[in-house]
Amino acid sequence: MTAPAEGAGGTPGDSGPTDADWAAAVAAVRGLSADARVLMICHVNPDGDALGSMLGFGLGLRRLGVRQLQATFPGPPELPESFGWLPGLDLLVPERAAYSDPDLVICFDAASESRLGDLVDRLAVAGTTLVLDHHASNTRFGRIDLVDPHAAATSVLAEGLLARLGVPLDAEIAACLYVALSTDTGSFRFDATTPAVHELAARLLATGIRPGDISRRIFDTRPFGAVRLFGEVLGRARLDPAAAGGRGLVWTVATLDDLARYDQPPHVLESLIDSIRVTAEAEVSCVVKQVAAEEWSVSLRSKGAVDVSRAAVVLGGGGHRFAAGFTGRGSADEVMDRVRAALDGALLPA
Ligand code: AMP
Ligand code: MN
Ligand code: MN
């Protein structure tokens, strides 16, 4: 299923998979022998779309009779507790346990190989590689690429392929795909929320999954320590009205020391950007999260006048027009100076 190319400008190569791409992907799965090893990989530091599309698709492959099937992602194998209930978690293996010589590798929600860490080795040795993604900056690194920059989530492509493989949606697959779809549409609030997105959501809900339970677990549950940590980190937020060509930037910094004081793991900070991007006086929001002494994971969000993926790419990262990120080095102040400079070059034509 392909979301309409609303306001797309129609640049070549951004129109989503062709019939031949879909046919090649179907053939790659249908052609698997009974003892084939299939390795699914999603991007580092997986979010709801990365995990949900991978596990939902994996459950579908299992229904098709694929027996040797693993799901993995680079880095420490721990997941946020909010994902601890997802169906299909038994497919997950730590990256060191992932098949060293898979017959098929399928990548989810990764714009480039750099988002796959050391697991990129598996692509070189795999019999074939299939990429499912929706980043405009996707480098088409698969043998077969199902990439649609107009899709609201990678799960839209995962569901499109499952449908073409004749796998019916059940409640377990649907729960995974619903997590993915609701994560990347901001709970159906962003402009990517097309009629096709709601039609997909309707088909997922028709399996009997409970959206209230899912949303509460995914978005509305956090430890008390994290609530207090957010209070402190939000309390030191700064507003730069002159930044982003005078449209305003709101930003804050969270250090490893902050996490330690409240006894919280780094992933609790993933949703901090959602509390800061509400700022009326700022077009762009930014959260700078410490990863190591001089290393920061930076999240950027825009309300529409600035292409933050352009800024993120300049700074070595990537993402979407209105949600992007990169890894910054040096002090937090140095990283923020670079962010302000890059934002001035990322204004979209009025
Ligand atoms: P986040 O702020 O981590 O939620 O990420 C927002 C968007 O930016 C996602 O679509 C990510 O794929 C992308 N992104 C975040 N960090 C990076 C990075 N270091 N390199 C490339 N893309 C990134
Ligand atoms: Mn993602
Ligand atoms: Mn995504």
Relative strand content = 15-25%
Order of helices and strands: HEHEEHEEHHHHHEHEHHEEHEEH
Distance between the termini: 31 Å
Quantity of strands, as a count = 11
Task: Specify Rg, calculated over alpha carbons.
Answer: 20 Å
The ligands found in this model are: adenosine monophosphate, manganese (II) ion
Query: Main sheet: which strands, in order across?
Result: 6-7-8-9-11-10
Which stretches are poorly predicted, pLDDT < 50 over at least 5 residues?
Answer: 1-12
Which secondary-structure class do the elements indicate?
A: alpha/beta
The overall pLDDT, averaged over residues, is 95
Number of helices: 13
Q: Please bin the fraction of helical residues.
A: 25-40%
Q: What shape does the CA trace take? A: globular
Query: Sheet with the most strands?
Result: 6 strands, mixed
Short summary:
Helix content is 36%, strand content 17%.
In words, what does this structure look like?
There is one protein chain. The protein is 36% helix and 17% strand. It is built from 13 helices and eleven strands. The strands form two sheets. The chain has a six-stranded mixed sheet. The protein is globular, with a radius of gyration of 20 Å. The chain starts with 18 loop residues before the first helix and ends in a 6-residue tail after the last helix. Residues 1-12 have low confidence and may be disordered. The structure holds adenosine monophosphate and manganese (II) ion (MN) (2 copies). The site of one manganese (II) ion (MN) has 6 residues, from loops. Adenosine monophosphate is lined by residues 273, 299, 317-320, 323-327.
